[in-house]
Amino acid sequence: MGSLDSNPASFDAFAADAEGFQPLNADDVRSYLHKSVDFIYDYYKSVESLPVLPGVEPGYLSRLLQSAPPSAAAPFDIAMKEIRDAVVPGMTHWASPNFFAFFPATNSAAAIAGELIASAMNTVGFTWQANPAATEMEVLALDWLAQLLRLPESFMMNRTTAGARGTGGGVILGTTSEAMLVTLVAARDAALHRMGSNGVAGITRLTVYAADQTHSTFFKACRLAGFDPANIRSIPTSADTNYGLDPTRLLEVMQADVDAGLVPTYICATVGTTSSNAVDPVGAVADAAAPFGAWVHVDAAYAGSACICPEFRHHLDGVERVDSISMSPHKWLMTCLDCTCLWVRDAHLLTDSLETNPEYLKNDVTDSGAVTDLKDMQVGVGRRFRGLKLWMVMRTYGATKLQEHIRSDVAMAKMFEECVRADDRFEVVVPRNFALVCFRIKPHDGMIEEAANRELMERLNRTGKAYLAHTVIGGKFVLRFAVGSSLQEERHVRSAWDLIRKKTTEIMSGKM
């Protein structure tokens, strides 16, 4: 595609019509958004028919779009045409009902509307005074979601029974990585304070713990928080505990560290690990941590959404004894990226570590102590109005519809699991939790099982009719089938299973 500036004079008339540069001209806003909404409508109507994985090569986009920024203005329709012609063909369509890889990135009409309105307002709510509504909406949305999850009131800013402001609190961050990082920093500083350490002199004695199934971002966050890599404990799991953290083994490792003069500081328990959806026993982990005063964080990024349903809430039993918990509604609760909710039992421990108080942000409301400025519960200072889309989702759909959404996905995953178990060429590698099925082709007639399963995944993904990802569990190469894309219906799951069976038959018969 040639440069849009190859004939700048062609846009002279367009530029001449403008009475100076007006980037927020109300008529333009209306026109551009109407066209964008039409594009989104067409996209959702057609995404099912698009290849889930694009057939493009690295660097494709730079060959389709001009390499230098344009100097002259262009009609909005030009940009929209380039999106259709160049961007869409290079997209991996997470919105596709044929997307079964990783965990879903759910969305909804209410979330999109909330994101649009928040983006249009474009507020930077670092303090309460900078935008009272944004701060209070975030607190309200977090307290609502905490109630849906039946979290103890100690995690809420506004206690529901007494009506008073509690010591706990929450904040909406971008990712689980951020939630881990800020709580690691708070736990680090609290441990150093208990030790009477001068500054960070004692940091080399601090130890942190997680199961080997914990997301890799945890170990990255530990390094960012300054923990010595030699003091980061990855505790092996096994099929005996369905790859969940063994609290007895955890206790043994922590005691050995204490005997060596180290200080157990932080434990990450996961509800719904990425590889297999394993669940660490929250209550037992909290009990193991208690004698050492170690901070316990619960990462429920994906599976936490399911805990709004009473039948799944038991996975959070014992949460009243942990220090923090995070979950990401952008994974399974119909709220578009990015939206990770973090609750802490003592917000002061977080703000003591993360507070900034420059002169230009000082104000009477903050000084009064009547509010918590959310900038002091995150790494940065600036922040988006994320609370609006989360509130819009809960306000529009209510608990009943959100529970229906979770249960529908779980039912489809159960159906897929039953199909796998009924075909003796396959095995379910770990018991299904929530809406993820981990399966593989069983060893057959001297077949190299990893090669066969890798070939199956590649053949499936090449068709563009389904997209699956893999993991390794207990040394086995395993396919992950994650149900939950917002547009998925039972027919999409059945169609994917038919395709899996067909490609498996081709592999076993030696067909290429």
UniProtKB/TrEMBL annotation:
The keyword Amino-acid biosynthesis does not apply. Signal peptide: none annotated. The modification N6-(pyridoxal phosphate)lysine is found at residue 331. SUPFAM superfamilies: PLP-dependent transferases. GO terms for biological process: phenol-containing compound biosynthetic process; primary amino compound biosynthetic process. GO terms for molecular function: carboxy-lyase activity. Keywords: Decarboxylase, Lyase, Pyridoxal phosphate. Gene3D superfamilies: Aspartate Aminotransferase, domain 1, dopa decarboxylase, N-terminal domain, Type I PLP-dependent aspartate aminotransferase-like (Major domain). InterPro entries: Aromatic_deC, PyrdxlP-dep_de-COase, PyrdxlP-dep_Trfase, PyrdxlP-dep_Trfase_major, PyrdxlP-dep_Trfase_small, Pyridoxal-P_BS. The keyword Lyase applies. Its cofactor is pyridoxal 5'-phosphate. Belongs to the group II decarboxylase family. This is Aromatic-L-amino-acid decarboxylase.
